[in-house]
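Please, structure for the following, as tokens.
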Amino acid sequence: MEANETKQALRKNAIARRKTTTAAQRLHAGETIARCIGGLPLPDRRCTVAAYVSMGSEVETRPLLHTLAEHGHRILLPRLGAGLEIGWGEYSDAPFEDYGERRPQEPSGATLPANILESASLILLPALLVDAWGNRLGRGGGWYDRALTHCVPGAPLVAVCWPWEVCAPPLPREPHDVPVTATLTPDGYTPIATSVG
């Protein structure tokens, strides 16, 4: 089976497992990761964090966004645009723009360019699976792999997922895939111990 077919099968299984969670479990998981903020590699009290708004069966990220904002951090959130466009918006108290179930909510306000990611000291991104080498399986659109070409080398890349989505067997990896440096689950923040070779 080729890498792309293997990834599709893994995605299907991961999403099926996630769908067994309830809205209450997703919210509880989100509140739990929000309490992990003290363990995140934030360089100072006020910095820029790139994050995302959860959707569907993902661990709820809104409590974490709220906690980061309460601590004075500037938060960048994806604005998906059309096609291959990469843009960001700033988290605020304004309502999110809602595009339905197949696309995450986005911040209202101005769209910031892709290279704004250079200002982020920490990048939180979604994952369906993460292996021991930091290989991350996303939803397959490649948006984050393209976006991450704009981050500063060495910026922590932290995959947010469920504890059972951190797996030991190596995931299929393609040349464009960008490995993460840590995971954040309701069990806590865990750096990736093994570098990709």
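The beta strands are 48-50, 74-79, 87-90, 120-126, 129-130, 136-137, 157-160, 182-185, 188-191. The mean pLDDT is 87.
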